[in-house]
Design a protein that fits this description.
The protein has 450 residues and is of the alpha/beta class. The protein is 44% helix and 14% strand. Helix 17 packs across helix 18 and helix 18 packs across helix 19.
Length: 450
């Protein structure tokens, strides 16, 4: 795990220590929580998931065990066995600190500590924790939640490694639920703009009247409800990354306004004629295939070229079945910890049931299936009967439609299956042999639920 994505809890009764830790770590981690009273520790663990705790060895309160740090360490480990704990101690308590390692602490630091050594220790603990979890994800993108060991995902990891450090505009394509927003965040985190803002906008949900105000900003009095000056999303993302989700759903009029801003690299707020220069890295995403997007009655080709320096196509989950076990175990650990069932596992029959299902809702649907199973679980091992697929994503097929299926579509489906099998599941090679694009082949796979 990248330290920048971690959530840290510091528990110490010395306010100076808490202040020093907050100043040191707030620029290094995603969030830092400080707590003076150890009695509140268990309550905090129930409210929020932390990646690591920095815990003092001695508090003002008296604990019967003879050492407060060891006592609270044991309480933490009882509730969350996998949570990393670093003990904070004085020179006089080194023997107790060593004992804490035997009780499950990951490390200890001695007051006064060296700032860089402390940060390095946290980084190493988080790295080892990720490695021991057994998730075969790219180390650089694991912290973003992108998991996978399939050939398709390895191709995406390789592509992300190449494009993320550049300022190239990226277009992410894929069905709903495949994780386009996670890929966008991963690109930002690996880019040279990682410490600058990452601003996401669902542009497909913006009305014509809100589009300009939301993206470009407005001056007070520009329209009826403009009661104060407002900074647009382009300005908010200055020197960082702007992620425009559902870009395929904006109107031709909105496209023209967006194209003008991207070409000129400046925005003009509503209610003013003063251009404001913007410096952003643009990432866009849509669930509409590129071939459909290229229809000029729907989307301007000049805008496509502007936003699509590099395209990344995320395959649906049904085409990366090799990743199902990895993803299922990841969500099992996550929700097991969230709902205080950390010892849950999933058996072979349950995994086989997942692999036999076509997942029209993709990874998002799998996530909900596992969460529901964890909540309802009465035993430590999930069985196939614990996995219930949503009728929202899996409606009953109309029998008349099934009867009216043409012979031609059956032939096409069987041909696709045969060619994919011949090429050992390689979609690129299969598409080439069939004489169609990969996008077209993906559409047919979706159509026939392959």
């Amino acid at each position: 795990m990248d330290i920048r994505q971690s959530h840290i809890l510091v528990v110490d009764d010395d306010p100076d220590v808490l202040t020093a830790m907050n100043l040191l770590l707030k620029k290094e981690v995603s969030s830092i929580t400080t707590e003076k009273t150890p009695d509140n520790l268990i309550s905090l663990l129930r409210q929020k998931n932390f990646d690591l705790i920095l815990l003092d060895m001695n508090f003002n309160a008296s604990i019967n065990t003879g050492n407060e740090g060891i006592y609270w360490l044991k309480r933490i480990k009882e509730l969350k066995p996998d949570l990393s704990v670093v003990m904070i101690t004085a020179y006089a308590d080194i023997d107790l600190a060593v004992r804490s390692l035997k009780e499950g602490a990951s490390d200890f630091i001695i007051k006064p500590w060296n700032n860089q050594s402390l940060i390095d220790s946290i980084k190493e603990i988080l790295r080892k924790k990720s490695k021991s979890s057994g998730l075969p994800a790219s180390p650089d993108f694991e912290s973003s939640g992108i998991l996978g060991q399939s050939e398709a995902m390895q191709d995406i990891f390789n592509k992300l490694d190449k494009v993320a450090p550049t300022d190239a505009n990226i277009l992410i394509l894929g069905e709903n639920g495949t994780g386009k927003d996670l890929v966008a965040k991963a690109i930002h985190q690996k880019s040279l703009r990682a410490l600058k803002p990452f601003i996401k906008v669902d542009v497909g949900a913006l009305t014509e009247t809100l589009f300009e105000s939301e993206l470009f900003g407005h001056k007070k009095g520009a329209f009826t409800d403009a009661r104060e000056d407002r900074e647009g999303r382009f300005e908010a993302a200055q020197n960082g990354t702007l992620f425009l989700d559902e870009i395929g759903n904006i109107s031709l009029q909105q496209q023209a306004k967006l194209l003008s801003v991207l070409q000129n690299r400046q925005v003009i707020k509503l209610g003013t004629n003063v251009p404001v220069p913007v410096n952003i890295r643009l990432i866009c995403a849509t669930n509409i295939p590129l071939s459909e997007l290229a229809n000029e009655n729907r989307f301007r080709k000049d805008l496509i070229y502007r936003i699509n320096t590099v395209e990344i196509i995320i395959p649906p989950l049904r085409q990366r079945k090799d990743d199902l076990e990895v993803l299922a175990n990841h969500y099992l650990r996550f929700y097991g910890e969230k709902y205080f069932k950390p010892h849950l596992s999933i058996n072979k029959k349950a995994l086989e049931k997942l692999k036999d299902y076509h997942f029209p809702g993709n990874v998002r649907e799998l996530q909900y299936v596992i969460e529901r199973a964890v909540i309802m679980a009465d035993k430590d091992t999930l069985d196939s009967t614990d996995l219930i697929f949503s009728p929202i994503e899996n409606p009953l097929k109309n029998s008349a439609e099934t009867e009216n299926e043409t012979k031609l579509s059956t032939i096409e489906k069987n041909t696709i299956l045969r060619v994919i099998e011949k090429n050992n599941g390689n979609i690129t090679k299969a598409a080439k042999e069939l004489g169609i694009t990969r996008t077209a082949l993906y559409r047919r796979l979706g159509k026939y639920e392959i």
